[in-house]
């Protein structure tokens, strides 16, 4: 049983270390921003099986993560001929790190969004201006909805993987409190450290993963997480923060593909659970039908139906696909059944 008062996994200092080694087939780049160098990982297609006009995937991590959380997905998709990119925002992965106080109390959602936008534009320039499919997880999913709502980038498709809902995250944090009743007390005894809710591998497993994932994997994951996090990032998404119709308006595949947006979530996710994610899917389905009805989108508004899917339920309709990854927790891209989620994403990608 871990101690409620342990500080073993908490840090108040910038990490001082060389960049982490990379898996096979993935290379690291750094792009210049006004604040510092931002890490972008790139996995080139292993073969030209999809031709020169293939659409790249661009991955955005969530809180305490980094581009590294997408390594398995990047290897999976690049092996199938799809170029992949993943960003580490400031204070994450091997990007530059603000000080503890600057990161926790003065790094805003807007600043983190600037990092994502800079990385997307850099990747688009490398890909000769191609629009990408944006795949965004958790708080990074919330950030990506905000970026599209502000019409800063255009994408070919959008995948919200266990994403903070654009209508606000209060329900998500109520789920977190239910899963961890000592949340608030631990925060106090940890000096209000932002990583307190995930300050031990047992807590990280409870919130992020299924029970079946090995202790060794969870411990290695814990060692890679950011030493501290921005408070203003999640607080900036507590209440509605993105217009669903404006988000959908930044997706370019309407009229050519039956679905331009996918909501993907883990079956045993305790914070972005079925209630929250089905609500998010319906949120965008309602917006899609309204846009088609007003003839602001040239697309067919098809009724919802279930797909034949042996690996968890998937539904399609009203422009939105909703997929469940069986046996996966919140970090569906890293859990035991991550490959099932990758296959569902590939099915969505192929219909674009």
Automatic annotation (TrEMBL):
Tell whether Hydrolase is among the UniProt keywords.
Answer: yes
GO MF annotations, alphabetized? lysophosphatidic acid acyltransferase activity; phospholipase A2 activity
Q: Which GO terms describe its cellular component?
A: mitochondrial inner membrane
- One Pfam family assigned to this protein is Abhydrolase_6
One GO biological-process annotation of the entry reads: lipid homeostasis
Q: Gene3D superfamilies given for it?
A: alpha/beta hydrolase (3.40.50.1820)
UniProt domain AB hydrolase-1: residue ranges: 57-333
InterPro entries referenced in this protein's UniProt entry, alphabetically: AB_hydrolase_1, AB_hydrolase_fold
UniProt keywords (A-Z) are: Hydrolase
UniProt record similarity statement = Belongs to the peptidase S33 family. ABHD4/ABHD5 subfamily.
Q: What is this protein called?
A: Alpha/Beta hydrolase protein
């Amino acid at each position: 049983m871990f101690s409620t008062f342990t500080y073993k996994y908490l840090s108040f200092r910038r990490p001082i270390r060389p960049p982490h080694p990379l898996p096979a087939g993935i290379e690291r780049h750094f792009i210049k921003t006004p604040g510092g160098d931002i890490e972008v990982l790139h996995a080139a297609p292993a073969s030209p099986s999809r031709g020169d006009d293939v659409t790249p995937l661009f991955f955005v991590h969530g809180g305490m993560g980094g581009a590294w959380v997408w390594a398995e997905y990047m290897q999976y998709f690049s092996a199938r001929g799809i170029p992949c990119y993943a960003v580490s925002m400031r204070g994450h992965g091997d990007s530059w790190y603000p000080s503890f106080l600057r990161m926790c109390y003065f790094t805003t959602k807007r600043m983190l969004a600037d990092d994502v936008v800079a990385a997307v534009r850099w990747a688009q320039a490398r890909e000769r201006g191609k629009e990408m499919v944006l795949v965004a997880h958790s708080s990074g999913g919330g950030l990506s909805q905000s970026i599209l709502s502000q019409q800063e980038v255009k994408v070919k498709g959008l995948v919200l993987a266990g994403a903070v809902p654009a209508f606000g995250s209060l329900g998500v944090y109520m789920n977190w409190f239910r899963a961890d009743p000592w949340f608030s007390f631990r925060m106090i005894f940890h000096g209000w450290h932002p990583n307190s809710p995930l300050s031990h591998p047992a807590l990280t497993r409870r919130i992020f993963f299924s029970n079946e994932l090995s202790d060794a994997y969870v411990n290695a994951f814990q060692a890679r997480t950011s030493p501290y996090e921005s408070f203003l990032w999640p607080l900036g998404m507590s209440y509605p923060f993105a217009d669903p119709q404006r988000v959908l308006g930044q997706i370019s595949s309407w009229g050519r593909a039956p679905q331009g947006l996918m909501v993907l979530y883990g079956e045993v996710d305790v914070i972005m659970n079925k209630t929250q994610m089905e609500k998010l899917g319906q949120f965008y389905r309602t917006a899609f039908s309204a846009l088609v009805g007003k003839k602001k989108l040239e697309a067919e508004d098809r009724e919802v139906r279930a797909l034949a899917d042996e690996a968890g339920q998937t539904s399609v309709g009203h422009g939105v696909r909703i997929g469940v990854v069986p046996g996966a927790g919140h970090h569906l891209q890293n859990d035991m059944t991550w490959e099932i989620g990758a296959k569902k994403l590939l099915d969505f990608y192929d219909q674009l």
